[in-house]
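User: Predict the full complex structure for these chains.
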Amino acid sequence: AQSVTQLDSQVPVFEEAPVELRCNYSSSVSVYLFWYVQYPNQGLQLLLKYLSGSTLVESINGFEAEFNKSQTSFHLRKPSVHISDTAEYFCAVSANYGGSQGNLIFGKGTKLSVKP
Amino acid sequence: NAGVTQTPKFRILKIGQSMTLQCTQDMNHNYMYWYRQDPGMGLKLIYYSVGAGITDKGEVPNGYNVSRSTTEDFPLRLELAAPSQTSVYFCASSYSNQLAGTYEQYFGPGTRLTVT
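Assistant: Here is the predicted structure of the two-chain assembly.
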């Protein structure tokens, strides 16, 4: 079974400052890793994903995350945030073998609040 | 493609009433899921389906039922609504194959349900 821990429930930050949202996972099998973003009163949107290959993955709006297998982490970073990045961010993991149930296990979320 | 659509967007139920939350996807995904989201708790899996005619329980199935007669539709039924079922409900879908497992899930916009 897998589990996900998001270490911060809320992260306040000023506009144009860097931010890191932390995510650790545990699993007895190899995993796929995901970050989803949820803007107020909306559904979840995929921000970025690690399936295989390069351990550093990037999104189109400047976020990046690095898969660190030894530390079982998948932290999300952005060097300079905007007001529009204010949202809740969810880290998720799924088992990456054929025949797996395909269920995502979510962390409890981190609310990023960007202040002017 | 419309992606994953859910109806209704909002609903208020009285205790003991029943209702069906509708979910449709047009991406020909084989897997579909129902989650509930409560503040500060992340997303919890209610039921999932790996294909038409096949459903299984998730983490919190009590008080709910599902069916999957077609690839596209995955309705969630609430019988005898209770205040504990006040939540935001999300439907999701994904593609899975026998070799690589399951990739990202695509989410609908959600249904906000209040039981009073």
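Chain A has one domain: 3-115.
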